[in-house]
Amino acid sequence: MNARTEPAPAGQDASARPRPPLVRELLLVAGLFLVYKLGRQLATGHTAEAFRNAHHVWDLERTLRLPGEGAVQSLLLHGDTLVHVANTYYATIHFPATVALLVWLYLRRPAHYVWTRRVLAAVTAAALVLHLAFPLAPPRMLAATGLIDTARVYGPSVYGPPRTDELSNQFAAMPSLHFGWALMVAVGLIVATRSRWRWLWLLHPLLTLLVVVGTANHYWLDVLVAAALLGLALAVIRPPRPVGHTLTVARGGPAPHRRPLRRHEPAGVSR
Description:
With 271 residues, the protein is mostly helical. The chain is built from 10 helices and 2 strands, in the order βααααααααααβ. It has one domain (23-157, 167-246). The protein has helices spanning 22-42, 47-63, 69-76, 80-92, 94-108, 110-133, 150-154, 177-192, 203-214, 220-236, and strands spanning 3-7, 246-250.
């Protein structure tokens, strides 16, 4: 069946919608970040519970026959350069990639920016609840895993000793926001662009997955829970229409063509 396309009605193209006020967005994003950081600090101080939960997660993964995190780490440990690159990726890509996505969407796809910001806020809020309810020590701290803290051994490391680290809560492994945000970066760019190469953005969450597991910062279940939370958020918060959206009309039922009326010609009169 042959088909033709017609431009979408005015106002349907997401790229044509007005940008939200910049100052309001900066204050909103900064406020959300501060609330999250304060919430993570509230979750500190549960060391014994975090290690008990870590043993439960590790045993559950073995029961489910998930692949061992050590298999990924052994790949990174084939060379100092590779593991150093993985540690650098973990330490430097997480926030800049997410901020770059939000800035680009704000400038080029305002409607997609609002959608992405809402999804990220929803996922982060749900993650904070889990961090408070289920403190979890990462695999690099659990002797039973047999894994090493690659950042501490090979550098660079973004964490200090857990007892004195006032900038982060190291017992907030589940879910992995490193992976959840990386996956949303890819989803946001895939939805907001039309290039045939846009699916290559999935390499970012794939690399992030290998890095967070291989550096022993997260379990497989941390990644799966992050993906599930993102899936729920995407199911509830619907994206805007694709850029350049068109209406496809089959030849069997063509859209009616209306000739513009001439001056003084009454409506309904056809020639």
